Amino acid sequence: MSPEVYKLIHLAGIFMVFMSIGGLALHALNGGTKESNGARRLVSITYGVGLLLILLGGFGWLGAAGVMAAGMPGWTWAKLGIWLAVGALLALPTVKPELSRIAWIAAPILGILGAWLARTKPF
Ligand code: HEM
After folding, report:
1. What is the rounded distance in angstroms from the CA atom of residue 89 to the CA atom of residue 47?
2. Can you give the pTM of this predicted structure?
3. What's residue 19's pLDDT?
4. In the chain, is it the N or the C terminus that has fewer CB atoms within a 10 Å radius of its CB?
5. What is the C-alpha to C-alpha distance for residues 117 and 21, in angstroms, rounded to an integer?
6. Interval between CA 19 and ligand 1 midpoint (Å)
7. Domains contained in the chain, number
8. Which of 1, 10, 83, 113 maximizes ligand 1 atoms within 8 Å of its Cβ, making it the mutation to test the pocket?
9. What band does 26 get if pLDDT is binned at 50, 70 and 90?
């Protein structure tokens, strides 16, 4: 597959995960709980598949573009850190609903940081 296809897979995963963070955070901000979330299964599948697609698309791009031959570049380690942080944000509204506003605000900041790292590859 071409790097372009992998990038689309990467972006599809990002859309799914960020949509889920928004949905879970808004639900918690409105006083919703895990039990009262009628779309729990749908959301879990969406962010689970999304997280996988982000990795598949990211590493697929690196492989297809021939970047991995020289080892993982530094900026991709930073992106893995962002991926982990985004995973933590997904859990935040359920585990600590009072911190849902932080998830709401931090998500786009992490998204922009991820895009900036990919565009500029600063290290
Ligand atoms: C949730 C975490 C992540 C976010 C928000 C994110 C965001 C993005 C965005 C928006 C782009 C498109 C940039 C563009 O071409 O305009 C991109 C590209 C890319 N990302 Fe991620 N990313 C994340 C995680 C990762 C991970 C874990 C990897 C692992 C290797 C990765 C590797 C890449 C690669 C290789 C590209 C293509 C770079 C290029 O076109 O030159 N990303 N990312």
Report:
1. 11
2. 0.95
3. 98
4. C
5. 21
6. 17
7. 1
8. 10
9. very high
Q: What is the pLDDT of residues 61-108, one digit of tens each?
A: 999 999 998 899 999 999 999 999 999 999 999 999 999 999 999 999
Q: Which residue lies with its CA nearest to atom 2 of ligand 1?
A: 83
Q: Return the residue whose CA atom lies nearest to atom 8 of ligand 1.
A: 115
With a Cβ cut-off of 6 Å, ligand 1 is lined by 7, 10, 14, 54-55, 58-59, 61-62, 76, 79-80, 82-83, 86, 111, 114-115, 118-119
| Token output for 70 | 């020289």
| Integer angstrom CA distances of residue 10 from 25, 40, 46, 100, 102 | 23, 23, 14, 25, 24
Mean pLDDT rounded to a whole number for the chain? 97
Question: Coil, strand, or helix at residue 58?
Answer: helix
